Amino acid sequence: MRRSAFFFRVIGIGILFHLYVGVRLIPAAPVGAPLRWLAVLVLVASVLLIPLGMAARTIEQQPLSDRLAWIGLIAMGFFSSLLVLTFARDVVLLAIHLVDWARGVPIGSPVFIAQSALAVPALAVLSSAVGFYNARRRAPIVTVDVPIDNLPAPLNGFTIVQISDIHVGPTIKRHYVERIVAAVNGLEPDLIAVTGDVVDGAVPHLADHTRPLGALSARHGAFLVTGNHEYYSGADKWVAEFRRLGLTVLMNQHVVLNHDGARAVVAGVTDYNAGSFDPAHKSDPAAALQGAPTDATVRLLLAHQPRSAPAAAAAGYTLQLSGHTHGGQFFPWNFFVRLQQPFVAGLARLDGLWVYTSRGTGYWGPPKRLGAPSEITRLRLVTGVSGA
């Protein structure tokens, strides 16, 4: 009941946003009646398609479910840009009106009002096309050096390849995953870290599309931790499936690696909010490190959400690898991520802890990335300078 009420509330808000865009752009656009009616039809279609795309995963019949998801999610990405650009246009118009009023000249520029009403949908189409290309291409490789104080010589150059937030689901399938796996294996890493949100759907629907992950290959293996979307999709069944594929799933646990005579600890925690789904899965960075050798200079934590960082720093970890944020995925949502997470993307420092937050290797929702490129991250441990 609550979920239905929320869904209808979202639809109601969506209708109001579409009305706002229509009222602000259609009357001002210098076009004839046929194009005005076409614009109205596009907005009506968007109102219908976006919630249909959101609800498509509840439809069992394939390929209908995936096709509806594709159409609805593309519409969502386009309308997001259309809404933001319409609001930005109104801000610019307000500024022009205020300047004209202050100068005592006729308020407003009819030419700018008309041309900007055409420019907004054109820019929305362009940004959606560019964002679609960025989302659907294979994630580029990003190399990051992490300086570690007193790093044992055998670990200098130790390479970790991180992938995160693939979101295998309605629009991301096996071929997309195969390209990621091929790129990761081509880097010949010492260790592979998969930091959650691998899937968006149930095991019976997506197991075939996640199967390529079983081919991930590294000297010390591939390690995985759960993200919040695993819990939306049945975490216990997915953990069993990942383990069946040969991935080492760390759930508030650690393993000790011996790398050419030097020891390193690799720990992993369940998602930051996992305890709300299953109290037995409550995330606990300190518990994950219990019993680990105290003389290990490198203590790596895999934690889906950057919000685990304060507890990780207190527990004495050296480096935390996270994802979850997608770097905002597309403008302007990158600014809102900062309201929930301490880090949005890239390498950061918290007390004695390095935190690397991946922008993600796939995408969630609309197939769109703008200003927040996806990534396959190659992290290299290098000898640091004390106090750096």
TrEMBL record:
GO terms for molecular function: metal ion binding; UDP-2,3-diacylglucosamine hydrolase activity. Keywords: Hydrolase, Membrane, Metal-binding, Transmembrane, Transmembrane helix. The chain crosses the membrane at residues 7-29, 35-56, 68-87, 107-133. It comes from the Bacteria. One of its GO terms (cellular component) is membrane. GO terms for biological process: lipid A biosynthetic process. The keyword DNA repair does not apply. Residues 159-327 form the Calcineurin-like phosphoesterase domain. The keyword Transmembrane applies. InterPro entries: Calcineurin-like_PHP (IPR004843), Metallo-depent_PP-like (IPR029052), Metallophosphoesterase_sf (IPR051158). It holds the Pfam family Metallophos. This is Calcineurin-like phosphoesterase domain-containing protein. The lineage of its organism: Bacteria, Pseudomonadati, Pseudomonadota, Betaproteobacteria, Burkholderiales.
